[in-house]
Design a protein that fits this description.
7 strands, 4-stranded antiparallel β-sheet, 3-stranded antiparallel β-sheet, globular
């Protein structure tokens, strides 16, 4: 990587960290809390996910795929981030995310990963849980904060 790119990357990371914490009156809620709330909503509607022990992927464990895993990644945002700021941050990531601005959470579009190399992966649009994940994520509304 060239020196110019290294400097640009360091500046971008520094600016991103500064923007994430600038102006927050209180520390943001745990990233896991926002994600776990959406995952609980999925579970109530028949789709169970678990975070992998290694890495950043969450895997659909019920309903289980035949020789494949359905996987998603998550991003969370500070309480004071605007929808435009969240969208701008997502544009910098080399993975397509859907934003649920009221929940301050973004979920990657579901993908498939081979669990059994002997089996061929189905087409994404032939996996019913993929469409359910999209629908449930878009429908999710966070509960009102307690005062």
């Amino acid at each position: 990587m060239s020196f110019t790119r290294c400097v640009a990357l360091a500046v971008a990371v520094g600016c991103g960290l500064t923007a994430s914490s600038a102006g927050d009156d209180k520390p943001p809620a745990s990233d896991d809390a926002a994600i776990k709330a959406v995952v609980a909503h999925f579970a109530k509607n028949g789709v169970k996910l678990e975070k992998e022990k290694e890495g950043n992927w969450w895997v659909v464990t019920d309903p289980k795929g035949d020789g494949y895993d359905v996987i998603v990644a998550w991003r969370t945002f500070p309480a004071k981030a605007t929808k435009e700021e969240m969208q701008a941050e997502l544009k910098q990531i080399n993975l397509a995310f859907m934003l649920n601005a009221p929940a301050r959470v973004a979920m990657s579009h579901p993908g498939l990963r081979a669990a059994d190399p002997a089996k061929r992966l189905p087409k994404l649009d032939q996996v019913p849980v993929v469409a359910r994940l999209d629908k449930l994520f878009k429908e999710y509304q966070p509960s009102e904060p307690k005062r």
